[in-house]
Design goal:
One of its GO terms (molecular function) is acyltransferase activity, transferring groups other than amino-acyl groups. The protein is mainly α and about 350 residues long.
Length: about 350
Amino acid sequence: MSVSNQDVIKSSAAKQRDYYFDNVKFVLAMLVVIGHTYRPLIDESPILKAVYLAIYSFHMPLFILISGYFAKGYNREGQNRKLISSILIPYLIFQTLYSIYDYFVYGRDSLGISILDPYWAMWFLFSLFLWRLMMLPLFVNLKYPLVTALILAIAVGYIDEADGFLSLSRTIAFFPFFLFGYYLRKHHFEVLFSPWKRVVGWVGCILLVPLMYWLEFLSPFDLSFRRWMYFADPYESLGHPEWSAGLIRVGFIILTLIVSALVLAVIPRGKTWFSAMGSRSLSVYLLHGFFIKFYDALDVDDKYPGPTLYILATLGAIALTFLLSSPWVTNALRPLLQPRLRWIFRTSSQQEQQKLKKAAY
């Protein structure tokens, strides 16, 4: 039996792929969908709100940390082209589509499309583009990059004008997670892989919901935990204009890192039945909002309140994650998710010709 070169290449790629991170991305993508599904319902159920807060205590910061981990080749040749085709252009496409969709679904009086004011979940792509293109190349040349990023993340909360425009607050406040992920190596994650740490991780994850319930409803702290976890608002709008408000953000950053470590410890290391779907997590992130916004516009929480709705919402979010991470969806929508920009960029042969011309001079 002969083996073709293509089979060898596929086999080699499969061996090199780290399924652990695919598993992480799938879990986080599903939690993004579940969290957005729960958002219209959290005021109806304290327990559901506690689950929602538990999800938001780590899921986006951890997503950002993993994005930073995979940004190590930011200065390789062709990376700027990849950034434009895989992040910037999809952002422009979906920012426009969501703005139009919002206009019709919610019956807005006017259609507003603002490229510099990311719509809803599109802030992540906008911020990711800035982190990769501008902030990471700058910070890696600093003497104390993580300390500087942390100071800026704290300081931006004191600026009242730091809001949704340019995703300024989130871009700066979440950047320490991205930068921290950039400096992590595989052996740092492997520290979490021992059996007893997995047990600790499961115990911590189980206790996270009761902890969030206590913090939100029983603790003496006068905080809007949900809004603090968004990292999107200045301290004054959160009801804490005092100078010490930055310490609260530090506390949330520490909490997020601890919870993230607990979650990373329980995620399977090897190939699983959902690993392949994890490699398509971006399609879940970009597409799920069309379903969530339609569901939100129906006001189902007012028409069908109660535990049955919460269970159906959870099952629906899980099913939606499976659907949007399927190869059929990603292949059908590839022109939107991963547009080919040959009409913008030079081909490899054109680049070689350009280099030869320069060498001739």
